């Protein structure tokens, strides 16, 4: 079992409005529909994310780390005489896309 796998026999989520546990995301969503009144529903806490959700979370963390590193390196340009305004304007033309880059790298 990898760290991305769900823990067996542990519910996916627990309702914060009642004592209901949800074995899967679909059960949680159905409960939200059932408890919807006045535009509000019960809330739930996910305690055992799906494998896909765990992988997405890991990729989000990697992307955030990369963005922080990117911003720090972009700020280093200021020490080389580039202004914040020039960096901000240039950011609008940056063509790097994480998903595109990933697809290129795995080919």
Question: What would you note in describing this structure?
Answer:
This protein has 107 residues and is mainly α. Helices cover 52% and strands 7% of the residues. The protein is built from four helices and three strands; from the N terminus they run ββαβααα. It has helices spanning 25-34, 51-79, 84-91, 98-106, and strands at 13-15, 21-22, 44-46. Strands 2-1-3 form a three-stranded antiparallel beta sheet. A hairpin with a 5-residue loop joins strand 1 (13-15) and strand 2. The longest helix has 29 residues, at 51-79.
Q: Averaging pLDDT over every residue, what do you get?
A: 91
**Principal-axis shape:** elongated
Strand percentage: 5-15%
Instruction: Kindly provide the radius of gyration, computed on alpha-carbon positions and rounded to a whole number of angstroms.
Output: 21 Å
Sequence of strands across the biggest β-sheet: 2-1-3
> Into which percent range does the helicity of residues fall?
40-55%
Number of strands: 3
Main sheet record: 3 strands, antiparallel
- The secondary-structure element order is EEHEHHH
The parts where pLDDT drops under 50 for at least 5 residues are: none
Overall SS class: mainly alpha
